[in-house]
Amino acid sequence: MAAFLIPLAVLCPLVASIILFTCARHLSTRGVGVVACGGVGLSALCCVILAAWLLARPVTEVLHVDLWTWMRAGGFSAHIAFMLDRISLLMILVVTIVGGLIHIYAMSYMRTDPALARFFACMTLFVAAMLVLVLASDLLCLFIGWEGVGLCSYLLIGFWHDNPANTAAARKAFYLTRIGDVAFLCALLLLATATGSLRIASEVGAAESGQVSHMVVNAATLCMVVAAFAKSAQIPFQAWLPDAMAGPTPTSALIHAATMVTAGVYLLARLHGLFALAPAVQALVAVMGVLTLLMAACTALVQSDLKRILAWSTISQLGYMYLALGCGIWQGALFHLMTHAFFKALLFLAAGSIILRAGHEQDIFRMNGLGRAMPGVTAAFVAGASALAGLPLVGAGFYSKEMILSGLWPARFMLAGHDIPAGPVLWGLGLLGAFLTALYIFRAVFVVFEGDSRTDPTGRTPAGMGIPLACLAVMSVFGGMVEMPDTLAPIHLFTAFLGLSPPQAHEPAWLVLAGALAPLSGLLAAWVLWGRTPRIMREMPGQASIIPLAGSTPRATDALYGLVFVRPLRVLLWFVRHDVAAYCLGRTGRLTRLASDRLELARRGMIGLVAGRTVMLTREGSILLGRMQDGRVRWYAAWIAAGLCAALATMVLP
Amino acid sequence: MPPLPPPPVASQALWAPALSFNESLVLAAVLFCIGLAGVLARRNLMFMLMSLDIMLNAAALVFVAAGARWHDAAGQVMFLMILALAAVETAVGLAIILCLHARGRPTLDGDSNNLLQG
């Protein structure tokens, strides 16, 4: 039965998507919503049944479903095959349940949009592709899902394609993630040539038993890291995610916060056995993760667009996950992935409700004092904010960050034979990140909800949007309590779920205390700066210039991309367009003629004659060759046929 | 060139092909030459496209014939792929003709559209 449910879970959203793409005209607005939510809901039901089935089995049980052989060439074979173990079970539960809630929300949110069917078709297709990504047991099959989610991301960022800025944002996201896709393909080719198969289990097994050379493992993992960084908008690819907020808010919640951007984290966690063999790459992941974490948190601190604050916050939280992966705490990264999916989806959906009620206003400085007008949405947003900040006990983020931070303390890097105890430094930077997180998110909370009411929100938040908000708020508050540090309570449901033994070494109590105090001090600082004295900070001109570096980061990275990628391409294009080669040839010919004329005048001798002949030959030759390029297709075809005949003759005739 | 593997034993074949392998090769070569001559001689873009399709079909015929000779379905699979290729090629060609119309050059003369001349 379980083997039948896995393809069914993928098929339900896929069929819904096909229905919506093909027969949208015959469906009413309500029908479109029912088909989309039904597809994702059925898939969620399948996943819950699968979870009940798998959790009743021993932890090492892995369910393999081989659908068909995709290709077989020489010693290489690729399969369309699914695999359900504890990691993929966690991912499909997160994807379908959070995705289902977002679909229900989107039914109300997008109700008046004329292209509703196209929106839901892309969303359900995304869920299907994401399920393929997390369930695949063959890396090539995983790549299908990887490309599929990228495509849906592109389609949905540019959903309102009447505005050129939106399509530009979509293209930017597509191009930047494409760099990562190429790196992913390089990694696949390396691994395929090294082992002849792309099965995840056999890859990791072959690498661990030493059949794959050290260099191949390093190169392949490095390519994987580039791919994951591009997908997750980490340094140096961070520029696309803030622009991706041009899409509808449910898209930002589902794709650019909860699921797709965490695909890279999933990939690295799935291949953690492979990464353990490449400590240098792991160290790189940790360093880039911590850099991204701090840079994105500083940038979020000076943004004034509510959705952009959340986007930079997503980048920053993904930095946490990569920091954990780089130090080998992949279970902590997965735990943070889960809680992050809950609270970031909640924050985005609440932000969507606020923006809708405030009349499509996204600037936080123009929507003061919304707290009294919409208490329910305020409560949801504050629940999400405290979970993101990791306020002790009341936020899911506290427990997952605690798991990462306490794992960071003893971390060491083995680089080129040296044992580098980098743990305390990374721990300190992670703690600084937690402080900044609380600072920027409560800045948004205080500015948006406190103070005098300037805008007059109209209408009510419909139940279709309220219920998903309430569900996600409950998950954000209580979702983290499945795993607690030993100092608080010996609850280790999450590590037990993944089939790992709970950490043996007890972290010192002051580590937990520091992890709890950092967000609290951030909250206090935010209250002092923006909550208590609203006038001073809010009326300050050029608010973004407090941290000049952070304020200019987005522009600086765009300029950097322009310098590194766009400028050389432009130069190349200029060369091609102005036919520089032909120009140089022509110039050379003219120069030769000039020189020969001078020589002729001077000598009227042998040299002049030879030079004259050269000029004539060059000119005649160029005219003859130019005649070949007469722009007539038939002559080109004739040349090709003649060349083919000549090539065949040299091959066939002895 | 490596020697070709022998065809399967005759008793395994359930039917006899209407054309022998050599005959179909000759037919394909004739078709190909007709198509090539059409591409080279006609000036009408539509007829050039049709001639291109004849050439593609000649190549496809070789695949089918080879598949029939060695009793391998791969030849027919290749035929399907060539069919798709031909459809794509025709679509692109027709799109170019439509583009020319949209640009104000409503002509089907392949030789007059020679903006790319050197």
Molecular structure report:
The complex is a heterodimer of chains A (654) and B (118). Chain A has 654 residues and is mainly alpha-helical. Chain A is built from 26 helices and four strands. Chain A has a two-stranded antiparallel sheet. In chain A, strands 3-4 form a two-stranded antiparallel ribbon. In chain A, strand 1 and strand 2 form a beta hairpin. In chain A, helix 8 packs antiparallel against helix 11, helix 11 runs antiparallel to helix 15 and helix 14 packs antiparallel against helix 18. Chain A is globular, with a radius of gyration of 29 Å. Chain B has 118 residues and is mostly helical. Chain B is built from three helices and no strands. Chain B starts with 20 loop residues before the first helix and ends in a 16-residue tail after the last helix. The mean pLDDT of chain B is 85. At the A-B interface, helix 25 and helix 26 of A face helix 1 of B.
Provide tags for this entry.
A: 654 residues; mainly alpha; 3 domains; 72% helix; B: 118 residues; Helix Hairpins; 64% helix; 0% strand; EC 7.1.1.- (chain B); NUOK/Mnh_C1-like (chain B); quinone (chain B); ubiquinone (chain B)
